[in-house]
Amino acid sequence: MASRDESADRAVDTSADTGPTAIQSLGAMWLYTLLRFGLFGVLWLVLWLVKVPTLLAGLIAVVLSVPLSIVLLRKQRTKVASNLERRIDARRARTNDLDDKLSGGQSGDYE
Fold first, then answer.
1. What stretches of 1-111 adopt beta strand conformation (E)?
2. Is the pLDDT of residue 15 over 90?
């Protein structure tokens, strides 16, 4: 009977830290992607308005948007990376918990 109580306690503990949902992670990724495209579009438009030829303006915009996105979109990129890391950690914790339950509560005792 005590092992059932311990299993129930572990199930409650792991459900508390499930990490961000898939929707939250995808939303953060899509926002970052749209911001990157927006930055490229604004740079391309400015260069095009200054009468830089269209193809050259696109190439320059690509080259400039990469370092600018590293600087200007740092907060959003960090959020995406954090969400992914937390989801991976939560999945590892669930997998380890399941492995522990399947092995009878003796993880790592295979010698």
1. none
2. no
* Paired tokens of 36: 């990157």
pTM (2 decimals)? 0.65
Q: What is the pLDDT of residue 14?
A: 44
Q: Which two tokens stand for residue 79?
A: 């959020």
Of 4, 6, 8, 18, nearest to 94 (Cα)? 18
Burial 69-104 (b: 16+ CB within 10 A, else e): beeebeebbebbeebeebbeebeeeeeebeeeeeee
The Cα 100–Cα 29 span in angstroms is: 33
3-state helix, strand, coil in the chain (%, to 5): 80, 0, 20
Distance CA 89, CA 92 (A): 5
pLDDT number for residue 105: 66
